[in-house]
Specification:
Layout: H1 2-11, H2 28-31, H3 35-42, H4 68-74, H5 77-89, H6 94-110, H7 117-120, H8 124-133, H9 139-161, H10 178-194, H11 197-214, H12 222-227, H13 230-249, H14 265-276, H15 291-298, H16 314-323, H17 328-334, H18 340-344
Length: about 350
């Protein structure tokens, strides 16, 4: 933990612009302090075979509906490639790089993006994988990966600018709710990982519009009024902050960006803090305007009813603490250890 905190203090320093992008800000030697449990988890998988799906879909489904169960099972493979990349970078050996590349290449050869950000938000692990292993890929494989990722990102820009609706969900046709935040996370991470100036410019433009549209001047996110749930405040802030972390690797500070209306991610975290600390209680989804929330509660998904559990905000306050170290004690209280990608990479 001490090594991680020292790294986090360094992350809190202002980032400077530079040519090219260094994705990870935690040094390999510092990342090695988190290596043991990763090796324990991945060592049995070194000879495993990936089983990518061409089409995945979980959004708007209840347990056992459609291909939800198969999709949830398949997406468990995505952290395998990312964690193996981190393990290799931290000195675990070439076998872990081979494992990461095997899963990454298998998935980009098969998967067909559907531009549904709720389905695709977990592909942040695949993007992080690319950012770490790209320098070690052979030219042909890297060129294929670059094409896949760039086409995917450009598709998101086009779908946002044209308001292309990809789901029957009423939320899919809104362009200022958590769906948009997840679109922008995927887009921004790809743009920075590719170090593509045009994509970064698109991501910046759309991110700034989302901050103005999604967050009120007092810090409340619009999803809270619709869903009456801190669950969706977190589900909104997490992708926005991950986008800000990616932008930080590119030398930009999006966390403190303030829109013309006076809204910012920083204000949203200040709004959420009394709930995360336990000072303010909240009954989740009690007055939600979205029918699907009640359907999920009726199906036994416990997180869609009952009192808010502050521990659910642990990950997102670890993300915020990168930009605002004053949140570090709250993050540690909610979740003693940071998410693995922060501990081993910092981005």
């Amino acid at each position: 933990m001490r090594v991680w905190l020292l790294g986090l203090m360094a992350l809190a320093l202002p980032a400077s612009a530079h040519a090219g992008t260094q994705w990870c800000s935690v040094s390999p030697s510092d990342a090695a302090s988190s290596l043991a449990p990763v090796i324990q988890q991945l060592a049995p998988l070194l000879d495993s075979t990936p089983a990518p799906m061409a089409v995945m879909h979980t959004e708007g489904t209840l347990p056992h509906q459609g291909i939800r169960d198969e999709s949830i099972e398949a997406r468990k493979q995505l952290p395998i490639m990312r964690d193996a990349a981190y393990a290799w970078r931290a000195g675990a050996g070439e076998a872990y790089l081979t494992l990461s590349m095997r899963y990454f290449n298998a998935w980009i050869a098969v998967y067909q993006p559907n531009y549904n950000p709720i389905d695709e938000t977990n592909f942040d692990s695949l993007i992080e994988t690319y950012a770490v292993i790209a320098p070690k890929m052979d030219p042909a494989a890297k060129a294929a990966a670059d094409r896949f990722l760039k086409t995917w990102a450009q598709g998101y820009v086009a779908s946002i600018d044209s308001h292309q609706v990809v789901s029957e969900s009423p939320q899919a046709s809104s362009w200022n709710n958590n769906w948009q935040s997840h679109r922008l996370k995927v887009l921004t991470m790809i743009a920075v990982a590719l170090d593509d100036p045009a994509l970064v410019a698109d991501a910046r433009r759309l991110f700034q519009a989302q901050i103005a549209a999604n967050i009120l001047p007092d810090g409340e996110v619009r999803d809270f009024a619709e869903r009456d749930a801190l669950h969706y405040v977190i589900y909104d802030l997490e992708p926005l902050t991950q986008a800000a972390l990616a932008a930080r690797a590119h030398g930009e500070d999006w966390y403190h960006y303030t829109s013309p209306t006076g809204s910012s991610i920083a204000k949203a975290f200040a709004w959420l803090a009394p709930y995360a600390s336990g000072e303010k209680p909240h009954e989740e989804f009690k007055n939600s305007k979205v029918l699907f929330d009640a359907q999920r509660a009726a199906a036994g998904q416990k997180e869609y009813s009952g009192p808010f559990e502050p521990a659910r905000a642990g990950n997102v306050y670890w993300l915020a603490s990168v930009f605002d170290p004053s949140y570090r004690p709250l993050a540690q209280k909610l979740k003693p250890q940071p998410p693995l990608f922060l501990a081993m990479c910092g981005n």
